Every structure is written in C-alpha cells, then in structure tokens.
Amino acid sequence: MDGRGGRGGQGGQDATRDRNRGAVVAALMLSMALAAIDSTIVSTAVPQIVGSLGGFSIFSWLFSGYLLAATVTLPVYGKLSDTFGRKPVLIAGCVLFLLGSALCALAWDMESLIAFRVVQGLGGGAIQGTVQTLAADLYPLKERPKIQARLSTVWATSSVAGPALGGLITAYTDWRWIFLINLPVGAVALWLIARHLHEPERLSAPRGRVDWPGALAVFACGGVLLTALVQGGVAWAWFSAPSLTLFAAGLALVAVVVLVERRAEEPIIPGWVWRRRTIAAVNLALGALGLLMVAPTVFLPTYAQSVLGLAPVAAGFVLSVMTLSWPVSAALSQHVYRRIGFRDTAVVGISAACLVLLAFPLLPYPGAAWQPALIMLLLGAALGLFQLPLIVGVQSTVGWAERGTATASILFCRQIGQTLGAALFGAVANGVLSARLGGSGSLDSVARVLDDPGSVADPERLRRAVDAAVDAVYTGAAVAAALALLTLLFLAPRRFPVLRDEQQGPQPDDRPSHQTAD
User: Fold this and answer.
1) Which of 54, 224, 460, 484 could form a disulfide with 285 if both were Cys (CB 3.0 to 4.6 A apart)?
2) How confident is the model over 338-353, as pLDDT tens digits?
3) For the chain, how long is the longest CA-to-CA vector?
4) Half-sphere exposure of 417 (CA within 13 A, CB side)
5) What separation in angstroms does the CA of 496 have from each of 86, 276, 278, 482, 488?
6) 155-187: per-residue pLDDT in tens?
7) Claim: this prediction has a pTM higher than 0.90
C-alpha cells in the first residue's frame, strides 16, 4: 500500500469512528434527556394524577421517592461501571428507567405509582452518573467541553420544554402518556448504545469482587438520611420522634458503612475519594453548589408569582433564562481554564455567583420581572464557569478504572447538597415568615392564600413577608457560594494533577486509543 492509500485508509477509519462517536453522543443525549425532563414534566400533571388516583397527602413522594433512589445509587453505579464497564451499567439503567415508566403508566393508585417511581429512580441514578463518565471517556481533555456543553443544553432544553410538554399532554390526553412517551425515546437510545458503543479490550482482565454488602449499606444509609431530610418539617416536625429516630438510625448506618468499606477488597466508596485533595475539594464545592441551587429552582417561582404577580408560565420564564446562559458559559469556559487552570476558573465563577446572589435582596419591592430575570441570566453564566471546569478537572486527574467512581462521588455530593439545601432553606424561609406574620406558617401556605387575595385581609403584608423570606434564602445561598469559594482557595490545589498520555475508555469502535490530555 502506498502512502496515499495508507492515508486514505486511516482517513476512512477516522471518519467511521467519528460517525460512530456521533451516534454514541446522540444516545447519551437521549438518555440524559430521559432523566432531565422527568421531574419538570411530572410536576405539571400532579393535579390530574391526584384527581385520578387520589392520595393527595402523599403525592410529594412522587418526587422524593425518585430523588432518593437516584441519589443513593450513584456511588454504587459508579463503582460498577469501573468494574464491569460503562455499557452494561448504562443499558441496565435505561432498561430500569423504561420499565419504571411503563409501570407508572399502569399504576392503579398513588402507592403503586410511588413504588414505580422508585424503580424509575433506580434507573435514573445509573443514567446520570454513567453518561457523565462516558462523556469523559469518549473525548480527550481539550475536546470535553464540547460534549459537556451538549449535555448542559439537554438539561436547559428539558427545563423549558418539560412544563410545556407536560401541560399539553395533560390538557389534551391522559396523564399516563407523560410516562409512555419515554418508551420510544429510550428505545432509540438503547439501540444506539448497543450498536455503536464498544468496550475496550482491557475489560477482559480479572476484576475484583463486587462489594455487595457495602452497596447495601450505602443504599440503606443514604435512603434513611435523605428521607429524614426530605420529610423533616413537611410530614413531621424536625424534633419529632420520627425525625429523631431516622437521624439516629442514619448516623448508626454511617458507622456501618465505614466499618464495611474498610474491610472490603473493592469498596463502593473507596477511601481515595476523600484522601485526594482535588477530588475531596471538588466534592465539597459541588455540594455547596447543590445547596445554593435550591434558591432559584425552589423559591424563585414562588417569588415571581406571589410578589411580582406573574402567571405560572411567566414565572417559569424568569427561572429558565438561567438555563440559557449556563450552557453557553460552560462551553466557553475551556478558553479560560486553558489559560489560568481549572481551580482559578472555578474561583472566578463562584465569586461572581456570590455577588449575583447578594444582589437579589437589593432588588426593589415589588420590582419588575426583568430584574430577577437578569439576576438569573448572570447567575447561570457564573455557575457555568464554576461547575464544568471542576467536573472536567476531576475526570482528568483519574484513569479510566477510577473515573466512574470519581464522577459518581461529585454528582452524589451535589445531590446531597441540594437535598440538604431544600430542608435548610425551607426552615429559613418559614422562620422569616413566622417572624413577619407573628405566628406559624409556611411559604407554600402563604403562596396559596395569595392566589386568592379576597381570602385575606392584608395581602400586601403577606407579599412583603414572602419577599423577605426569599431574600433571606438568597442570602443563605450567597453564604453557600462563599463556602465553596473558601473550599477551593484553601483545600483545592492551584494546579490539578492532570494525567497525561492517559488511555481512553470505551471507544465508538473496538480499538483502544492513546490520547494526550493537555
């Protein structure tokens, strides 16, 4: 073969591999869309679901059950993907999610629907962690912002399209179609994964034993503690017997997890996750990110409707502008971290986020809708500059055999932060309302009263109380951003120990490749 033939053959192989990689990326985006659109589309159907099945007193478990299952399984799936490969874990996750979706569509009462949502969550945990890991496997360091920006776009699009699609489905069809539409999308994703994603040859090497006792202990511990956080102050008082019992059981299970994992040959949560400064610092920083994200995602819609008097659709737009600037900022962050490094780029982003969050309480009362929308636009830009460099940075400091565990650890900490933030900031908001109104009350109950101004003697007082409560939440979110900043400055190394000449993981064809990470 002459030189031209060799180059042509290589070019054809490269073109084929690029096409296959494009198909795998499409599969990842479709898989991520299943998990990303889930919560927003289900929330719009709650009135119809409750009207059909009943169970109003427990409907919140439609979301809590899914969240618990998805969160506590993240470390387990991360370790399994490092042991058995990404492909079987992702396929199993998609199958579980689709099975849960089909069962949800067949639910006969609220209890059965909640149980099937847990099945969905078991699949959602595998999808979230494995897709993010594969994004790092498929692309060398200098190209990873491309795939991460695409995945961020999926989340942004889903947050906007979910409520609209859910509203259309519930308005013109039965609510069960909200779950049934997952089936064709998931089927296409599964076909693309099975056909185009191939595992590297090194997976045939001997594997360590799976730490099933550790997996069970992590699942039980996370489930108990998250249930205490999610239901505390909602289903029961914080210092009631159920709350104290769950927290005590959770702490006891933490000790069990530590004991089991120390003795395990291949622990689900290995000690190096917290012994390595880079990963430990990013875990804590992204935990703070989950904490601060509660302010816009949970409390801003209530502020927009109760204080600004916006309709639900307009209130949703005020929040959605953040999802427009976030992926753009994330995609452009590579030009910053290539110059100043991962940590310093994240420092710039979280510093800007802290200032933006502090600006929210300074907005005039009642103000105009464009003002909080501008705040959210700037916040999205700042957080895109913060989160993506940390994720890409951590994934670049570990080899293929550790990447699933490392990625799952940072996603797990972010989810835990979000759950803790919902409980903490909910207590803060309710405390401010009680102080302002001279009695007990919750933000949700006040918001419902304001939907019918004729039912209250002084609606203006209630609006100002809601405004003060949300201002306090945003101040708390700014404190969380400051904690993330301090974590990066004092715990994270100035330069992440990026691996060079790292061997990539799953490829779109059967050939393992050797890439150099810049």
Assistant:
1) 484
2) 899 999 999 999 999 9
3) 89
4) 25
5) 25, 11, 7, 21, 11
6) 767 766 777 777 778 777 888 998 998 899 889
7) no
